[in-house]
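Title: Comparing notes on inverse folding

I've been comparing how different people in this forum approach sequence design from structure. To keep things fair, I'm posting one structure and asking everyone to reply with a full sequence. Here's the target:
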């Protein structure tokens, strides 16, 4: 079939090719010119102005950028370029992934080298150990769970814990206390047992304080819609049913609980830990939670401080140096302290930078078998700390970490020895059971 159509095409081409020629004819003979029979007039030559206009248009066209026509070679080059770019992007992504993986390895390694894994807190309601970011949510949940056991106590906790503005809390507590006092003085008068929720004082001073309505309802107030004189629509009130003498005494007791209320705060977990004697006792590798600054800001601060240290050493007065040291100490939230005991073992604990010296003494006493006996603490530089001293740890240059030396009171130990007594034991057995070695 294909050959049949090819034969037809050849035959048609042969018939339309014009008259044939003999092989003996002169090949140089010119073809005859076919004359036009339409009678058209010959065209006149363009005028000089038209020629100039045409030349100008041609010049403009030649100066215009011509679109590039892609050849097969261009397409190939573009395809190769796209593939190379894709390979380069993939290689860059692999490199970034490798960098992230390496960073993760470094992070894990750094965590393993830390003197303490982090800063932790204990919920006073549940005893759970929490990170800093978990504290607030956990305590709120614990307070809400408290409503099932004691709604009054839970609402008091809400008022004092959920509201950060202590002055607004005090105002609300005073107003609620006044409600209760008026009821106790006038137990039969309904106007004192009725609180209009649209009242301006209630709206501005009591309602915004979270937990205030919960407290009123926990003491016996009930929500009710009542008519208001001069209004068509009813309004919401909190109404307390008439109370007997015992109920009134109970209301006074609940008022006192409200006034004595304190915020529920997660307590710093000091993470007491015993270590064997180690030459690394003065080495502290601390996590970022110990600092008010970020790790990057801290590195920059340290670099700038080291660069300026020599320049300013001779120019600063003692007062200037002390002021700068105080400013530096404010950069720390917490401090990690180690106490070297007479047997060489170490006791470690975490403290707030603003904890007072007696807090440190109390921590040590709790960890000792004979914590009642007097002892001394020597800070770096030979400074002797006094248990009655109310200075903050930061003010004693004990931030963000420090090694202190413990010793029993020499006079008391001499009296014990003269009486034939034994030297007191040191750390409690539960600490010695988990003793570690500093890396």
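Reply #1:
Here's my take.
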């Amino acid at each position: 079939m294909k050959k049949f159509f090819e034969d037809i095409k050849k035959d048609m081409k042969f018939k339309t090719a014009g008259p044939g020629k003999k092989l003996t004819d002169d090949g140089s003979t010119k073809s005859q010119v076919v004359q036009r029979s339409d009678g058209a007039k010959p065209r006149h030559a363009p005028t000089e102005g038209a020629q100039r206009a045409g030349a100008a248009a041609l010049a403009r066209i030649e100066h215009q950028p011509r679109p590039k026509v892609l050849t097969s070679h261009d397409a190939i080059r573009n395809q190769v370029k796209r593939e190379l770019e894709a390979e380069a992007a993939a290689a860059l992504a692999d490199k970034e992934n490798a960098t992230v993986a390496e960073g993760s390895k470094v992070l894990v390694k750094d965590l393993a080298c830390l003197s303490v894994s982090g800063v932790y807190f204990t919920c006073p309601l549940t005893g759970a150990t929490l990170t800093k970011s978990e504290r607030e949510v956990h305590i709120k949940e614990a307070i809400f769970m408290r409503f099932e056991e004691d709604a009054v106590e839970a609402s008091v906790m809400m008022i004092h814990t959920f509201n950060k503005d202590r002055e607004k809390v005090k105002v609300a507590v005073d107003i609620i206390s006044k409600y209760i006092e008026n009821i106790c003085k006038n137990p039969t008068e309904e106007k004192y047992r009725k609180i209009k929720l649209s009242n301006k004082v209630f709206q501005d001073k009591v309602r915004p304080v979270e937990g205030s309505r919960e407290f009123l309802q926990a003491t016996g107030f009930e929500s009710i819609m009542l008519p208001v004189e001069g209004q068509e629509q009813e309004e919401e009130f909190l109404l307390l049913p008439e109370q007997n003498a015992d109920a009134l005494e109970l209301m006074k007791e609940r008022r006192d609980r409200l006034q004595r209320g304190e915020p529920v705060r997660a307590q710093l977990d000091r993470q007491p830990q015993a270590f064997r004697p180690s030459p690394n006792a003065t080495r502290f590798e601390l996590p970022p939670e110990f600092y008010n600054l970020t790790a990057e800001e801290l590195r920059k601060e340290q670099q700038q401080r080291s660069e300026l240290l020599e320049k300013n050493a001779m120019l600063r007065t003692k007062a200037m140096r002390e002021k700068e040291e105080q400013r530096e100490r404010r950069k720390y939230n917490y401090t990690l302290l180690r106490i070297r005991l007479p047997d060489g073992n170490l006791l470690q604990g975490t403290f707030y930078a603003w904890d007072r010296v007696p807090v440190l003494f109390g921590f040590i006493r709790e960890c000792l078998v004979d914590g009642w006996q007097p002892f001394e603490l020597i800070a770096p530089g030979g400074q002797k700390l006094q248990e009655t001293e109310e200075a903050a740890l930061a003010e004693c240059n004990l931030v963000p970490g420090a090694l202190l030396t413990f010793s029993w009171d020499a006079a008391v130990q001499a009296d014990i020895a003269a009486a034939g007594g034994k030297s007191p034991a040191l750390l409690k057995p539960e600490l010695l059971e988990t003793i570690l070695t500093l890396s």
